[in-house]
């Protein structure tokens, strides 16, 4: 089942005990030789109703920067 963030927020707000909160968790990254693995904290998985076998899609926006290498001649005139 696909969940969008807005649907999850609306579901949470619909609960009578809703309080705005911020979840801060640390997760250890491991490497199996082919890919990096991260363990998703249970509190976050429960919030988004993530179950084993489901897929997560990650989208990372990386700003484009162009590095320009130039040769600069330093000349001393006497």
Structural overview:
By secondary structure, this protein is of the alpha+beta class. It has a domain at 5-47. 19% of the residues lie in helices and 8% in strands. It is built from two helices and two strands. The chain has helices at 5-13, 42-47, and strands at 29-31, 36-38. A two-stranded antiparallel ribbon has the order 1-2. The protein is elongated. The mean pLDDT is 77.
Question: Could you outline the blueprint of secondary structure elements for this entry?
Answer:
Layout: H1 5-13, E1 29-31, E2 36-38, H2 42-47
Antiparallel strand pairs: 1-2
Distance between the termini: 76 Å
Task: Give the strand content.
Answer: 5-15%
The protein's oligomeric status is single chain
The helix/strand series, from N terminus to C terminus, equals HEEH
Overall average residue pLDDT: 77
**Unreliable runs:** none
How many DSSP E strands?
2
Strand order of the largest sheet: 1-2
Q: What is the SS-derived class?
A: alpha+beta
Please report the number of helical segments.
Answer: 2
Q: How would you sum up the major sheet? A: 2 strands, antiparallel
Q: Shape from CA axes?
A: elongated
Helix content: 10-25%
Rg over CA atoms:
23 Å
